[in-house]
Write a structure and sequence with these properties.
Blueprint lengths: L8 E6 L5 E8 L3 E5 L10 H7 L4 E5 L16 H15 L3 E5 L1 H12 L5 E5 L7 H19 L3 H12 L11 H18 L7 H4 L3 H10 L13 E7 L4 H13 L3 E6 L13 H13 L7
Parallel strand pairs: 3-4, 3-5, 5-6, 6-7, 7-8
Antiparallel strand pairs: 1-2, 2-4
């Protein structure tokens, strides 16, 4: 297996609306696309990609509005994200998809539209399972947009963690004003150390507006996933919020071909760099190389 920092190649496709979508590529074998979640980019998955690169040709796109890719553009919706993924699939002939968070929403929704997707692995898609969740996300999105408008990135970052209930355990009991100060400093330090082709937090945080929008678009959509014909792997961590576990439960109930795996002691950020992608890679490899589910 090659080193995490080894050379990867960069490629581009053009989506249906003319937007350029850039992606990193490494490894050899069947094609696997990794779709990052909110406040992420292709850099988030480089360790996971390296762990899988002996068995798969891994494609790691920057979703529109981030890094190598063009702007979000007008009339943004999940259909734009599906078109972007479709453009990559047509160029690469990849049939396997892994998505994290809002990237998992894109992955499972794409499998309804793109029959070339054979297997889909999802890590904790934040699906809106009832209207009260939509009301909550709308309130947080309004606060987030106000903070972004004022240039208060530290506050906006904290708002995202509060809304998605993914505040790291050691920080849950710290007063908000201290958290804002801490993350404001961290964001500035991150900008000083960003590597070539990586995207600093100062640019990634504002894109969360569109990930909020994806969550809100999922209201009432769970039943639609009965139409998914792809094999699906549902992944999550035992330390993750109850709302994310409920999303996985509801998906497991409606999907006709799904397997559920929970990682003991892991949380929502397990697949990304500097966390615990090794366990995720192991389950992904097993699912993509050997697993065949029995339809319900």
């Amino acid at each position: 297996m090659d080193d995490t920092n080894s050379v990867y190649s960069i490629h581009f496709v053009t989506s249906s609306d003319g937007t350029k979508i850039g992606y990193r590529q490494k490894g050899s074998g069947p094609g696997l696309i990794l779709v990052h979640g909110g406040m992420g980019s292709s850099q988030s998955f480089m360790t996971l990609a390296t762990l899988l690169s002996d068995n798969f040709k891994v494609y790691i796109p920057d979703r529109r509005g981030r890094g190598l890719s063009g702007p979000v553009g007008k009339n943004y919706s999940i259909l734009k994200e599906i078109d972007d993924l479709d453009a990559i699939i047509k160029k690469t002939n990849a049939h396997y998809i892994f998505g994290l968070g809002s990237g998992a929403i894109i992955a499972i929704k794409s499998s309804l539209y793109l029959p070339s997707i054979k297997k889909v692995a999802l890590y904790e898609p934040p699906l809106a399972t009832d209207h009260s969740m939509i009301e909550k996300h709308n309130l947080y999105m309004q606060r987030f947009d106000q903070e972004i408008g004022k240039g208060e990135l530290g506050s906006a970052f904290v708002t995202v963690l509060e809304d998605l209930e993914i505040m790291p355990s050691p920080l849950k009991y710290i007063p908000r004003f201290l958290l804002v100060l801490f993350f404001t400093i961290a964001i500035k330090e991150d900008a000083k150390t960003v590597k070539e082709n990586d995207v600093p937090l100062i640019e990634l945080i504002p894109t969360q507006h569109f990930d909020f929008q994806l969550i809100i678009e999922t209201e009432g959509s769970i039943v639609d996933f009965k139409g998914v014909n792809s094999q699906v792997l549902l992944l999550g961590g035992s330390k993750s919020p109850i709302s994310l576990k409920h999303s996985l439960d509801k998906l497991n109930n409606v999907l006709v071909c799904a397997e559920r795996v929970e990682f003991r002691g892991l949380g929502p950020e397990a697949p990304i760099d500097n966390n615990q992608p090794e366990q995720v890679a192991q389950e992904l490899r097993k699912f993509l190389m050997t697993h065949k589910c029995k339809r319900k």
